[in-house]
Amino acid sequence: MAERPADPHSRRTPEPGDEPHPAPQDGFAKANGWDRAYEVYSDFDLPVYVGPSTFAKLPWVTDPAELRARAVDVAIVGAPFDDAVSNRPGARFAPRAIREANYATGSLHTLQHPGGLQPLEILTVVDAGDANVTPAWIERGHALIYRKVREVAETGAIPMVMGGDHSITWPSATAIAEVRRPGSIGVVHFDAHADTANEDWGVLSGHGTPMRRLIESGAVKGRNFIQVGLRGYWPPVETFEWMRTQGMRWHYMREIEERGSEAVVADAIAEALDGPDYVYISVDIDVIDPGLAPGTGTPEPGGMLTREVLRAIRQIVGAVELAGLDVVEVSPPYDHAETTAMAANRVILEAIGALAAKKAAGRTVRWRDSGSSRS
Ligand SMILES: [Mn+2]
Question: Does domain 45-360 have CATH number 3.40.800.10?
Answer without folding.
Answer: yes
